[in-house]
Amino acid sequence: MSVAEKHARAASVAVIGMGNWGTTVAEIVARSGQDVAVYARESAQVEELNREHRNSRYTGEVILSDRLFGTHHMETAVRGKRLLLLCVPCQSARAALRQMAPVVDGSQVIVHCAKGIELGTHKRVSEIIREETMLRKIGVLSGPNIAPEILGGAPAASVVASRYEVVVGEAQRAFKGDQFMLFSSTDVVGLELCGALKNILAIAAGMVSEMGFGVNTFAFLITRGLAEIQRLGLALGAERDTFQGLAGMGDVLATCSSPLSRNHQVGKRLARGEKLEDIVSSLGMVAEGVKTTRAAYELSNIHRVEMPITHAIHHIIEGQWTIQDALKNLMRRQPLNEKMVSKSPGN
Amino acid sequence: MAELPMKVDWRAPSPQKCIRTVVERTFMHVLQKYATDESREELLADTFFHTQKRLDADPKHTSDAERALWTGLRKRYLRKDNPVSILRDIIRFYVEEIQGHFNPMVFAFSTSILPAGMNLAFHAWPPKRLFSNLVAPGGGIEDTIKITGDVDRVLKLAKTATPIALPTHLSNFDSPVIGWALHHMGFAPFCYGAGLNLFTNPMISFFMNSLGAYKVDRRKKEELYKETLKEYSTFLLELGCPSLFFPGGTRSRSGAIESRLKLGLLGTGLRAYIINLLKGQPKKYFVVPIAMSYHTVLESETLVDDFLKDTGKNRYIITDDEFSKPSAVAQFVANSMGYDSRLYLHVCEPLDLFGNRVDEEGNSVDPNGNWVDTEKYVTEGDGNIREIPQRDAQYTVELGDAVVDAYRRNTPLLSTHVVSFTMFKLLRERHPHLDIYRFLRLEEYETRIEKPVFMQALEGHLNTLRDMASRGLCRLAPMTATSPPEDLLKAGIGHLSAYPVGSRTIYEEDFGLYAKNLSMVYYYSNRVRGHLTGQFEVSPK
């Protein structure tokens, strides 16, 4: 067993997933003074991390902490760890959890950092964890966290939500440091939905930016977009206040404003007329917003919640509308009373 | 009828020793939880406040002895006597009231005559001839109460782990029905908390004491009583006493399947598990949800009336419903049982205290079949097992979610439910602008639905339910699963007319269907509403 493997085995925190955000999460925890076992499927990635303290595919030339110990053995990464941080894309969560299932135990705490809704099932990741493993102490971490900014040392904050106080405690301890603040919540549903649905608005923001519209349009999009994702959230059991907080408004602002956001890039390139499949394949990383848009569209129909912006983005992504069609449809809608957050009229 | 094959393998201390032990434990637990003088003072104030409210609201159900006791305690409290000694005396009073008169030998004797005993009880009410149709034609009680589920597996489990049975709750008949059914399946006696009102019903009280029932006074809202009750249940479970709770807390007022459970007593299983681990005497436990359905429910009119008036909070204990009227009971039994009716009782898949499945060997397994070491759930980062109330309460919430899911998948859906839902939905679509209260007061002539329209809708609902059943999302009684819609309609109308006699809740006339009693239609439709609309929680608003 290599030295790295030994350290990975002995660490008390594990990060599963070595993508952009997974690497960043691992780095934050390491900077707070803890050894972190980092799991990746690709052995080349693991070797680069252990040898050079880099993850060039996702975080470029950033030199990462020497307290990160990579492994591509799930058991080494996961078994016996006090805290598990699941940082894989939402659509890959189920497969990863099935791999984890035989080597986890009931004493462990798991906090996932995914922002998405599973296609087909419409499940949130906390539900998938429940469906695939024995784990019960489950939490979610979400908020305005543009990874390159955090890696660059900029102060940031997010929220950890769980029904278990011990989960919040473990997460806050792991992330304790001078750079990153972790607030707490009990609204797991709300946090997961905020994190997932804001990606739809990020795609829309990319389009707005590419079309040269200014801050008025941007403000219009963010405000009404947040209203409609809150509508869906409430229909699915979320708490209203969550949407006004870091994981709601905070993340919407960050993601929609930042050209670094992958979903923002998807929107820009769609507005330029590029095909979706070309965009996705060239991105090199997952843009959750595309799949989330489809899931949100389906959910809004099932629960009869008005989500005009989401529907417009969906039709654009599916190639059914141009952006001009979408704009026309949106601007010709009958404006509602701004305070209306209930379901569609007649429901 | 099955003999009692299982030895009662838990040692029940004498009743007096039970009382002493539970009083001491509750007392110590309360002192620990309410560790300051101020918090104990608040606890006492809460106790006296609720007690006085109860005594004022319901004087006739409080004995002179109890009233005198509380007067004396209150005097001591106002005199500022030592609050700790007052707490102990109140706890003692509670425990003595709660304590059942359970005795395994008495139970074995009682249950050997229970089926005939049930007949005898009913025959005790004149006129006897009304009860000649008590059981299904040509059959006995075993034919009337239809038990399904993997009973053998659960029985096998009960040899090595303490079972906690969690039935749904529709009627006061549930207690004797469940008691008989568990005995018939071959289980050892269960202890359970039965409402005080059941002990005043002469027909049922005989069985309550024999079936291991301890008394729960649901009028008592004070925290101290709840702590005492939980401690009593924990104590019994620590001993390994099979226990039964109705996690819905009370009979379903709306007729819908339970969606929100009362988790206080359910959590005592986990507490008993942890305490036994800490004592170095680990015991296994498992939970078995039991989903029940009746074609018609004796108390349905009172219950749904209460639900619709939204006075449930004030009338949490209903003592003046149909169940308290012997002639109503007799009529219901005679007509329901005589109609080839069955009570459907499904024994669901067993779960552990954390909501995991339990295999035949009593091992907990995760959804992918991996073995689960349940001790780990209560082991913290330092490797020590400990009680952590917030964590444990959440575990019980998760267990509750798993139980609700089991109820939804396994409550047998019957003709009365589907026919009533079809009627209700069609009428509601025709009157969408009426609120529910105005809607339920529609005149009979306004409720006509043309037969072809009704049949088309009924067939659609049946197809949906049958598809769901094939995917394990619901359970249909045999007739609901296989009958042509016309036969199901006839059966549903027939059952609905069985009680009250001649009620014509739904009837067919002149090629149309009519509803004479929309409240009843509403009540029975709620059993299947969640499956067909996604809205399992029912609200009149």
Structural overview:
The complex is a heterodimer of chains A (347) and B (541). With 347 residues, chain A is of the alpha/beta class. Chain A is built from 17 helices and 8 strands. In chain A, 52% of the residues lie in helices and 11% in strands. The longest helix of chain A has 23 residues, at 188-210. Chain A is globular, with a radius of gyration of 20 Å. By secondary structure, chain B is of the alpha/beta class. Chain B contains 22 helices and 15 strands. In chain B, helix 2 packs antiparallel against helix 3 (64-78).
The number of helical elements of chain A comes to: 17
> What integer value in Å does the Rg of chain B equal?
24 Å
Termini separation of chain B: 47 Å
Query: Describe the biggest sheet of chain B?
Result: 7 strands, mixed
Beta content of chain A comes to 5-15%
Give the H and E element order of chain A: HEHEHHEHEHEHEHEHEHHHHHHHH
Give, in spatial order, the strands making up the sheet with the most strands of chain A.
Answer: 3-2-1-4-5-6-7-8
Give a brief outline of the structure:
The complex is a heterodimer of chains A (347) and B (541). Chain A is of the alpha/beta class.
